[in-house]
Amino acid sequence: MDPKSSLETLETTSWWMRGVLVNQKPSLLFTLVIATQLVEDSVVKLDRICREANVKLVFVRSYGLAGFVRVSVKEHTIIDSKPDHFLDDLRLNNPWPELKSFVETIDLNVSDAVAHKHIPYVVILVKMADEWTQSHSGNLPSTREEKKAFKDLVKSKMISMDEDNYKEAIEAAFKVFAPRGISSEIQQISNDTCAEPSSNSSDFWVMVAALKEFVSNEGDGEAPLEGSIPDMTSSTEHYINLQKIYLAKAESDFLVMEERVKNILKKIGRDPNSISKPTIKSFCKNARKLKVCRYRMVEDEFSNPSVTEIQKRLADEDYSGAMGFYILLRAVDRFTANYNKFPGQFDGGMDEDISRLKTTALSLLTDLGCNGSVLPDDLINEMCRFGASELHVVAAFLGGIASQEAIKLVTKQFVPMLGTYIFNGIDHKSQLLTL
Amino acid sequence: MADLEAPQSKTRDLDKLLLRAGNLVGPDFYPGAELRDDIRDYVRILVVGAGGLGCELLKDLALSGFRNLDVIDMDRIEVTNLNRQFLFRQILLLEDVGKPKAEVAAKRVMERVSGVEIVPHFSRIEDKELDFYNDFNIIALGLDSIEARRYINGVACGFLEYDEDDTPRRETIKPMVDGGTEGFKGHARVIVPGVTPCFECTIWLFPPQVKFPLCTLAETPRNAAHCIEYAHLIKWHEVHGGKSFDPDEPEHMKWVYDEAIKRAELFGIPGVTYSLTQGVVKNIIPAIASTNAIISAACALETLKIVSGCSKTLANYLTYNGGEGLHTKVTEFVRDQDCLVCGPGILIELDTSITLQKFIDMLEEHPKLLLSKASVKHGKDSLYMQAPPVLEEMHRPNLSKPLYDLMGRVQKDTVHVFGTGLKNEEKHSSLTKLRVVFKGADGVTDMDTAIGA
């Protein structure tokens, strides 16, 4: 089929589907739906349908210089969250036996000056941490003075000022002070009710259940080792040997996890091979970076938003514009229900529309429980000036954001936005709010 | 909602912003059909770059009421562009790969939006006369390098003139809107020379490029990238002497790849692939369509607002990050009062007897400039040009003449100097503005000279 007619088919299909979705309950074939320019009633209806059918939903609205994007999914779990910055998994504060043995084979006090400055900082810090704990009843540095003393200890081993490996060790010393074990976020995920495996559990939660077991047993409080190490000043030989040790532990942790996953699958009546090796491996590598996103239904947000959040934002000098637009975007839909047109949609009767919109917006605020909050008159005027216009550049901006969220949701990589993104095209002081 | 009463017009939506008065608007906003028509008929916008951002910018501007656009880009279309530079196609009989980006982009947008005129320029930005840039109301940048941005910034700020009391003269202000993207991150900013910080004022925003220490490359490589850069930066010169490495030459790239493999094998380092080799050598940063769409839309919106005044503008820097959730932030940066590029210019006090040659020599020594091989321009007149040889020879006689005379014996004026500057130990070509004031030149003498001439 040539591109032109396939595009036409897509367009006609989507109109048809729109009718189908809003009026009936079909068996949906979609992974994700992007709904643009729907009014409040339709938003609520579509949200119910998609939530029940477990279809991911992204809402976009473009209105003059304002607009919003909202993701609505019951639960979205992410293994490959790909955070921008994440601490490496070196376990300097908790070295395992093989790492300790390797470190022992290297003598920091080697006489050759070149060799001295090509010992990787991992080795330096594991040794120094060990020396410290020996003389501090088995404890790592915790107070500010202790941390400084530790860094001085490292520095004292330098034999000249140009030893980059020692400089790196001093800069990386904070990794020794870092708390051991899993983060509170991963702890929370492990303690989630979904982490109790059942025949309905998704692969993600089965693996979380295995993770929980691992942490309590073989992991001794730690997640499976990630396995990679960052670049650092080192001789090629030391570096490659170090790499091998980390990879070996990551591999052995993975094998334990794999075993546990299979056992859990058996217990809940599923084929023990139904979760693939690569999936489990990826889970292990990303175990410290897992994310679970859950979204309120739009009608819950609309009927029961966080009042404190709304009041706080409306009172904020700088960012009240975005919050104001959020309220007004809802108010204009109420307006149309009463007056059968958007405020300012036509050129005549502007003053009347402005005062009507103001009344509608204030009554909405009262309904939400935000009595006493005000919307700036200028903003209400602007909303009427917009007259429900759709500007290409605003639609393009919001469309770009919506498409990006859609890609994140479908690929299950990176983290989708948690909340409603309210666009303020006047000064770009937009806000992402969880309401 | 169907518009049953109002006549259907293509500009129905834009009209709401351009024809209606408002309160949260720009300082010189005169709503009306005339504003809309003036934007359509008279405003000229230059889009610099016809790539990921440029394609989006052209589309956005064409669909926002602008009819007179120019686009400049020196590149040709490549296959890797096609995932986001949506104006370019490679389907059925349409083979755009290899054609100039500017020309195809212009053609496609004109096909799609009736009435818009887009003049493409398949050339380097440095090859255009300064006057070319002066013809536009706003310059929208969709560039991918710091150097290119610096250049345009220098040009636009070069038009800026100041009053006696150091306030910028409005009619010489040439606003720019600049967008940049890198994966999920991006920025959009508004630059109003003399009012908001220019690109140079905030050059510290850009982190230094990652460079591997030479000893790592030469002696202790640890990863694939080290092996590749060894082949690219060290081995190439050892073997090829003076021949410069061309990343777009497949044979050169293959040579680097083969050498990188050899080195990796020698050290037992895994991971060298042809694709990684390209990525490391060309410093490729992955680009996605959605970020480009978002940032260009923000830039085009600001362009519309600045030109029309239909709303307040971004003040003045928007950052965007969409990888982990969604974060946008507005920061209001302030101008560097001493900025070499958008400031009134470094004050240089000279004796009326100083020759042009002596002046050029002084620039090299000047602590804030360290400018070597300078060409000098006074208003529209080139006083001296280092290149090309024909023009150098033509202007050479000026070198022995007093600068004061060459500048028409005015007590003070602005000159522009262009040469190789040294900043943070890095050389780069720079265009700088200088305020030249002549000591010992008083009004009476000037008058006499004027009458005498």
UniProtKB/TrEMBL annotation, chain B:
Pfam families: E2_bind (PF08825), ThiF (PF00899). Residues 348-439 form the E2 binding domain. SMART domains: E2_bind. Its EC number is 6.2.1.64. Coiled coil: none annotated. It catalyses: ATP + [NEDD8 protein] + [E1 NEDD8-activating enzyme]-L-cysteine = AMP + diphosphate + [E1 NEDD8-activating enzyme]-S-[NEDD8 protein]-yl-L-cysteine. Keywords: ATP-binding, Ligase, Nucleotide-binding, Ubl conjugation pathway. Pathway: Protein modification; protein neddylation. The active site is at C215 (glycyl thioester intermediate). Catalytic subunit of the dimeric E1 enzyme, which activates NEDD8. Belongs to the ubiquitin-activating E1 family. UBA3 subfamily. This is NEDD8-activating enzyme E1 catalytic subunit.
